[in-house]
Design brief:
The chain has two domains: 30 residues; 136 residues, no CATH class. Helices cover 80% and strands 0% of the residues. It has nine helices and no strands. The longest helix has 40 residues. It is elongated, with a radius of gyration of 29 Å. It starts with a helix and ends with a helix.
Amino acid sequence: MFSRFAVTRAGVLLATIGVGLGLSAAAHAENRCPASAAGSPALDELDPPRRLAWISAHLSRSEERARLWTFGWGGGIALAGVGSLAAVPLVAPETRVDWYTGAVSAGVGVAAFVVAPPAVLADAPALRAEIARSGSGADVCPLLASAEARLVRDARDEERSGRWYVHVGNLLFNTGLGLFLGLGYHHWGAGVVNALAGAAVGEAIIFTRPTAAIDDLGAYSKGAL
């Protein structure tokens, strides 16, 4: 009788443990999101809220750097253009075209920042707003998927802004300005100065561009949070 009772009790205990383990595994699965296409097994083992917080924090850091770069260079170029226009009444009429050309070059430089600013300037605040709207009880997986997509997009945007054709475009544009002054007005000296100065500034802008999102994507993909 005792033996049958012990066996029955042991069976109930094992069944209870089995149910508990099953519930634990289910809870563990619920705390996981679908595997990231850009990630590794190590990344998928990390808690989704931690991954989301990491991406949000790092995109905010990238946003600060991109904002400083954008407004620093954009503001400086805009001031240079205004200075060129301000100098026009003070110079000889035959040289005014040189200063107008400098102002046009500056205007194109500022327009580039306005038309195609770093993507992270929009993505970082948009992600923070998504997280704020979701509330504490929201499903983290859609938020994490959105954050990962933004991180990938921002990294690719930073990578594209340093590709070879960006350098070529900068050199061709400034060479064109130099030839415009040289061939059109025989102001070869001013043309060379405008071309070299513009190309140097353009290359400096490219080489100082923000690249934090590229590094962040590499670290995130490896699960090195």
